[in-house]
Amino acid sequence: MTTEMDSADQKARHPKGPATKSIEPTATKGTEASPVVTPPFYANWTCTRTDTLLLLLVTGVALIVRCWRLSVPNQVVFDEVHFGKFAGKYINGTYFYDLHPPLAKMMFAAAGKLAGYDGVFDFKSIGLDYAAAGVPYVGMRLLPALLGALTVPATFAATRACGYRMDTALLASLLVCFENGLVTQSRLILLDSPLVFFTVLTLTAWSMFWTKQGQSFTGVWWFWLISTGVLMGCAASCKWVGLFLFPAVGLSTISDLWDKIADRSLSPSRWCMHFASRAVGLLAVPFAVYVFWFQVHFALLHTSGDANSMMTPEFQTTLRGGLDVSTDRDVFYGSEIRMRSSNAQSGYLHSHTHNWQHEKGSGQQQITIYGHADENNIWVVEPAFNTTVDSSSGPVPVKSGETVRLRHKITGKFLHSHDKRPALSSDDQKFELSGYGFPGFAGDTNDDFRVEILSGDKNEAGSDVRVQAIYSRFRLIHRNLQCAVYNSRKKLPKWAFEQTEVNCMRNCMPRMSTWHVEYAHYPNATAEMGVKTAKYRPLSMWGKIWEYNKLMAESNESLTGDHPFAARPQHWAWLRRGTAYWGGRGHFVYQLGNPLVWWASLGAVVMFGLVRAVLFLMDKRQIFPSLGGQRPLYLSSAGFFVVAWACHYVPFFLMGRELFIHHYFPALWMAILVLAFTLDLFTAKMPAIVRVSVYVAVAAAVLHVFNTFSYITYSRTWTKDACQKTKWLKTWDFDCEHAIGGVRATDPPPPSTTEAAKAVDDVPEDDEAAEDEDAPVDDAVPQPEQVALTSPSSAIGSVGVEESSSVGNIADIGNPVSIQANAVIEKSNPVAVHVEPNFEPPVGMPAVGNNPEPKAEVSVVSVVYSDVEDTGAHAEL
Amino acid sequence: MSVDEPQLKRRPGKDTVGALSPDKQLHQDSSNSVGAGSRAGVSELVRNSSSYAFMAVVVLSFITRYYRIWDPAQVVFDEVHFGKFASYYLRREYYFDVHPPLAKMLIALGGWLIGYDGHFLFEKIGMDYMSNGVPYMMLRGWVALFGLALPPLVYMIMAESGYSVIASLLAALLVTFDNALVTQGRLILLDNIMIFFMLASVYSYVKFFKQRYHPFGVQWWTWLLSTGVMLGCVVSCKLVGLFTIALVGVAVIFDLRRILDIRRGNTMLEFWQHFVSRAFALIAVPVVLYLSFFAIHLAILTRTGPGDAYHTSQFQMQLIDSPLAKSSFDVHYGDQIAIRHRETGVFVDSNSGRYPLRYEDQRVSSQGQQVTGAKDKTDNSFWIIKPMVNQEAFAQFVARRQAGEEISKDELNKWVVHHTDLVQLQHAATGSNMRTHDVASPMTSTNMEFTTLALNDTAHAADTVWKLEIDGAKSNSTLLKTSSSFIRLVNNKHGVAMWTHPKKLPEWGHGHQEINGKKDPTAKSTLWAITEIRGRQITAEEVEEMAKKQSGMSFLEKFVELQGLMIKHNNALTTVHPFQSTPLSWPFLTRGISFWTDAAQRKQIYLLGNPIGWWVSNLALLAFFAGLVMLEAYGMRDIDLVGSIVRRHILRSGGFIAFAWFIHYFPFFMMGRSLFLHHYLPASIFAYMMVAACFQFIFVHPYQLFTLRSWSSRARALLPSYSTGLVFAVLVAIQVATFVFFAPISYGTSTLTAEQVNSRRWLPGYDLHFQK
């Protein structure tokens, strides 16, 4: 230990020591080094009393800034729709699925619980009234506000830990404190405030860790290392965006460990300890934290809920009141079986007395996948066409590789495939599946499917040879077409009851063409056969976490909506536009950053790149600019945060999914620090008085801009004129019609709900009567404050003026307010729409007990069906 | 491990290295000193071993590529496309493809040279060549020339980069006996040609780099320009060539960094000379070449063909016999027009049907007359276009026209329709005007409903006024034309544009598409075209007149349009193909691609690399990276494991090969389009080179002898030691044995029984046909 300390001290004095926290490892090593290059920098900050006072001061200011008018608006705003609802589900313990990790949502649940929220209110749509429903929403919003406020002192500490003076630290925390976007985000029940909080704290802890470089393996050193790991794990447990911390922290770690190799005073074993401690602190600890929060998540959500069907049967069996299946194990010729597509979000192979109606189809009986277990899912296993199985000496088991036919028990038709296109796919790799056959017709070879077992359960002997319910996973390969029965996961049209399409696909991968038997029953079973039963094996903890995370990855990938306020990354950094969160009368919420801070911070990041490039060229010519003595400080601290910024920004360019400006917030914080460092670099050599004046001027400007935009941040009442003057960029599409003087700041005629219903029923058939002045009412608007919340992607929130006018054509009767209002709607598109998709149970899977499908009836008419054309088509195959 | 262990050589201290010798002195390198001693007393055979090795590679490459090149006499895999494109060149008919034209033009050139007329269109995999009279063997043989050249090029690159004869030969033989390169190398496909230019660029750059101590000499310029030309060619074959440009670009940056170092003794002026000459040769030359190939492409394809439809109407009308040019004529007010949606092809239709009072989701409509999109053109699809100005004169004009009065051409021309005109559209069958208003559309609640308004309803007439915008029009005097103009109809009052989407309305809408007002009028999906004027027939004179008036498009305009389309369609290649694969699986070769099957004879062609070769090259890459990290880590402690010359060679040449592999592989991870195993082939060649590099490092000693001189001038002093020869023989033998084992599915020439097929199914992902 002592040698280590010694070496550290030596490093501080000796310019050729290894670079610590340097993004620029070449500066001091190798052949191109020059003695003129300044030594690497690391700070050695310990919190003084003045620091403590200032920390308290900025915390106080930040709390005021974050908590002011926290109760406004008193309605559901933006994605509170989801995260409020999820909090309720945690409180009730009902299982749900969401594409984000659980920590932040659980924090909201805890806040809700403390504030007295009972989990009843369902946060169904934007604009629902909290006060009326008695939801303790202020308590819930207090959590993000608090977390948001704490990022401000953390910024102060991080800046100090990087080695900057107090005034710069104060300026940095002020820039973070008065950043409108961060303020907006931390006043609402959204996941980003916890995410930003943990991100900021991770990097603060990491900066603190660097100040302990001279004290390797001491308690305080370990404390900051492990804290970094824990906080990093928490960030990743809020949203996967937190994972970008790993490259940010990891790159600086690798660079540091690399430089440490050159340190001759460090013995190889010592170096290995450094390596191992980083691996534990920065990889193992965050992983454990992530797993831990998932454990809590599963422990809280113990009861079956409406998201069950998103998960595999093995998962569902772990939920209270979830799937509980027990069936005969062995499948014989003659067994009645129910087959499930062995994939999460699946259902049973199904048929019913309705025929295909699509253009290139056969018109034969539909085969679908249906989530609800009913009689129409029952199939009877029969031997292949023109073969028999001798069951006289006991039931004959179905083995892998054998060819079978599946007869639909109720309609008597065989599962059949032929050279016809399925309902939803047109490429020539996929074929239609149908139910085919009629009395007196023996069938044909197009009814034959080969059973190929892919895997069995290792605890059940023979399940990989003989088909066993639950345990054997198999494919069904059509004998003539060599295609496999394939779950396309697409929703069929109404004429097929919106069930899931299943077809027969050639060359398909096994993932969506794997099936298993979930129910098997041999009608002629005798007592001496000794019927064995099969059950799903509940998933282990790791299995659950793995499945959930896999599903999250899939949903993230498939998130390609058409949200009106979605924004691509290239528009974030220069603040092209914001997001409309909520609109009220005379005031509204629009997520827009403090433009001054965004633009200046982007400039600071770009400037770092330029400075670095110029320094590189000049160094090569052996001119070594010292940047006024600030070179090592600036390059190491700004360098680290620029790399972190890039890690939190560049990967988004590669993402195809729908993105929003709030994804930029972690990167924004890093850019703000770079901005503060840059200001320090410029003013370092100035006389104190000038420096202070510059800082004060910057602060004043930032405060002024903050105040200008505080109306849309805090939903303050505003006038239309002032609002329009604030549109510095044409692309900022906040809707000034919500402000005082705007057309949407006025109340519409308040109709009562009953009147509305009546009026709608009474709308006369002819045009003239429809223009009756009494007609304009809305059938679903109980909230007087709410205006035009239309959602393009879902029905949620689709109530408002647009439809109220459609009831009776307000426009037609010349009501000027409404006409204007609607004209404005079209132009400025003020819709506030929530972002996150609703993870409803998949198609074809209604809630249990709600079966929309018509009852199966064997109708003679539908059985008589000529298949001449069909067999003809096979001839050439 | 202590630093002072005696067996470890210390790296020269910083002081000695710090004093770099200037460029101008360094070049008198060891060509005399190393060679002289070892040259003495070697036999003739050894002296010429390099030439013999080279010739062996050529011969083996020829055999593997041309073995029964006439088999199968059927269309295989993407010959469907590239054979077809060659035919189009020979017919001079316009086609569209996502790849740049050079490789396809070269295929066509081969066809042209042998007198093929392009009559066959390669429509389906498995079509017979013989019965269709296609000189496919010559075509394949021509393309296989490029495939033939790959192993020799690999040999040259390796030898030029300072590897021993035996290591260079190893790399070349591994590449010769790679099944995927052979399969790909003997069919009418692009990758061969692309890889040829890629390796040629690398070879040129290596030659150029070796001239670094004779800057601006003839040789220096020759190889620099050659690099630029080859880069231009590779990127003109496939856009994957951009990776090769990136490879050379990074190498150039490192080189410039070396030149910039003041200790090299270059002045800033010299630095800028270096900089500008490289920018010229490696940026300007490829760009010019790329453009020239497109110019040739467009100069060849002058006739209308299957590619027309991708392009703007202006582009299409430049093509000879374009059907568009024949149906494009001016629209006049008073004409009855049919309006068709560009993307979905439906006609704007209206009928006396009305919107239902209440939709399924309980929203309520205006109950106005339906305006929908119908697949078929009927009487209901015609709308009379009416002006908003001079309405009285217009009324007279219409009256006279209806009375059957002859109207002079000049007068008729007064009533042409211009860009940004305000118009009304009257439904011909029901006599009401098209209208939109602030009522939510049936299926899209954010958009405005489309309906019609009776003529006598003046209160809401403002709803029926449309601003007609012609896409791409630059001035208000642009005339509206049928077919060739794409228009937007933007409501003058509400600012929404007429729009439709492929979802069908429920039963009450007769299965038509919903038409509504979209708030974002600039969307591509709001474009419509006027396809027909009822009762109007075009005369031959009019066609001629049209052709005269036609404004031309410059080459650059055409190029920009085509390039944009290529990028757009390349990114849109996302349809799931059964044989697509993810980049991660490529180096492990977990699955191949079925190219062709013949069920009757149980033959198939299945694209699969040489599994052992690929796995060995993965190991080599891994070993290289591990070794590199170790060398550098020891270097950090000033311990030199291998000596400075070897170290520099490993870093420079090994690093170059490793980066070449990396840059030709990793970008695929970021691509959204569907990807295939053959995208890994360029990278696989560099991986094979890495095997040879590792072989050289481990087995060939003394290493230094090879690193400093060129393959044509080097003293080929060394016969490998016994053990080196043994390792070489074993590696090559395994490669050849595996190659031969998989040859039946690479060539598709022999019938395989089920057992034989199954014995080749080394991994479960090898979904070969005829397993049963």
Can you give a write-up of this model?
Chain A: Belongs to the glycosyltransferase 39 family. Chain A: Its EC number is 2.4.1.109. Chain A: It is an enzyme of class 2 (transferase). Chain A: This is Dolichyl-phosphate-mannose--protein mannosyltransferase. With 877 residues, chain A is of the alpha+beta class. Chain A is built from 25 helices and 16 strands. In chain A, the strands form 4 sheets. Chain A has a 6-stranded antiparallel beta sheet with strand order 10-9-6-5-2-13, with no helix packed on it. In chain A, strands 3, 4, 7, 8, 11 and 12 form a 6-stranded antiparallel beta sheet that branches. A two-stranded antiparallel sheet of chain A has the order 1-14. The N and C termini of chain A lie far apart (79 Å). By secondary structure, chain B is α+β, with helices and mostly antiparallel strands. Chain B has 2 domains: 451 residues, no CATH class; 228 residues, Trefoil (Acidic Fibroblast Growth Factor, subunit A) (Trefoil), CATH 2.80.10.50. Chain B contains 26 helices and 16 strands. Chain B has a 6-stranded antiparallel beta barrel. In chain B, strands 3, 4, 7, 8, 11 and 12 form a 6-stranded antiparallel beta sheet that branches. A two-stranded antiparallel ribbon of chain B has the order 1-16. In chain B, helix 21 packs across helix 22. The radius of gyration of chain B is 34 Å and the shape is elongated. The interface between A and B is large, with 54 and 50 residues.
